[in-house]
Amino acid sequence: MKLDVVISADNIKEEYLENKIVVVIDMLRATSVIITALANKAKEVFPILTVEEAFVKKEELLNLGLCPMLGGERKAMKIEGFDFSNSPLEYTNEKVQGKTIILSTTNGTRAINLSLRAEEILIGAIINAKAVAEELKKINKDVVFINAGTNGEFSMDDFICSGYMISLLCESDNHDLSDIAKTAKYIYESNINLIDYIKDARHFSVLHSLNLMDDLKYCCKKDIISIVPKVEKTSKSIKI
Questions:
Q1: Is the per-residue pLDDT at 177 higher than 90?
Q2: What is the pLDDT, as a whole number, of residue 210?
Q3: What is the arithmetic mean of pLDDT over 194-204?
Q4: Beta bridge partners of 146
Q5: Edge-to-edge, what's the strand order for the sheet holding 176-177?
Q6: Which CATH class is domain 2-230?
Q7: Distance CA 125, CA 29 (A)
Q8: Alpha-carbon span 15 to 18, nearest angstrom
Q9: Which of 103, 113, 114, 106 is closest to 207 using CA atoms?
Q10: Is 73 in a helix, a strand, or coil?
């Protein structure tokens, strides 16, 4: 299979994604939140672009008899009126089991919505990387790893996460890697300790300044969750 990497949401060319499998990565922290919430038995997650649209979606779902909860961030901070921030540690089984989550974040939910022309969209992070790699082997089609990035720019954390997944895929098979995919694989294999590598990243520094080290440590744990959430394009919701 052909493997490629897009380095930020601003670099997504929607027509390029047609007939390809996309893995959206925003490991700090939106995709880690989605994976964690669904692993803790949330019913589904709706990735929403704006705060206003999130409140509209909540009213729509309430009218359908559902019990939606709002989660997300702006500038890494909890949004006023929301139930959760963008910390995966808040999405516990006790709080989210059976619930529909409406999530709006600066980077990750935007990257997901810009990827809807792909054949299939998987949600990936370090915490489920091995499960994603195994799923991609089963699908066996060309893959584009979409890095959400930070405010439209390259993000070291998403890039090394892509590299880890590419490295896993290449353990047992030879694949056709683009130059940037080869670079991501090299970066990961040269920096196995993720926190040591990303500690100088801008987004890491922002979260560190907000005393979110527990989030950072959690999001850098490899392969602690075995589910692979997928986007259902008809409803635009994410489920297992």
A1: yes
A2: 94
A3: 90
A4: 6, 24
A5: 77-78, 68-74, 100-104, 44-47, 237-239, 230-232, 120-124, 21-25, 143-147, 2-6, 176-177
A6: alpha beta
A7: 9
A8: 6
A9: 106
A10: strand
